[in-house]
């Protein structure tokens, strides 16, 4: 049984959809960023500010390796996990990569008061421009997140039939 790995922009619905899907198909759910924070006993913004992005990306790879060894799980990756090909190689060993494609306009409409990065539409566009080709390149399946969450979950489950 393969793992299901969700990639996409911050705010595209990876965690919410991943969690709801896990309940429907009886897989365990892991938010890779929260997993890293729990293991390191500190928040990502603290790691970024004190040690920088390169150090964070090393930790991210370390914990994605841990998660990829598990079976029958759904992993919601951090939006930047695709920046390091090693992460994708690790996740593809035992996983199907699904890119949740959601427009910047839709992402920016949501309430992101606890996520400062998502409050600035210019930053979102910059991240989108940097990452969109990586998301498309690494995805085994692309799902457009343009409907109610439950509809999207069913769309993914239907698309995955026979692939797990």
Largest sheet: 5 strands, parallel
Integer count of domains: 1
The name CATH uses for the topology is Rossmann fold
Instruction: Provide the helix percentage.
Output: 40-55%
State the CATH superfamily name.
Answer: P-loop containing nucleotide triphosphate hydrolases
Enumerate the strands of the largest sheet in spatial order, edge to edge or round the barrel: 2-3-1-4-5
C-alpha termini separation? 5 Å
Order of helices and strands: EHEHHHEHEHHEH
Count of β-strands: 5
What's the CATH first level? Alpha Beta
Low-confidence stretches: none
Please identify the structural class as seen in this structure. Answer: alpha/beta
Overall pLDDT: 92
Number of helices: 8
Q: Could you say what the CATH architecture is?
A: 3-Layer(aba) Sandwich
- The radius of gyration over CA amounts to 15 Å
- Oligomer category: single chain
Classify the beta-strand content into a percent band.
5-15%
Characterize the overall form.
globular
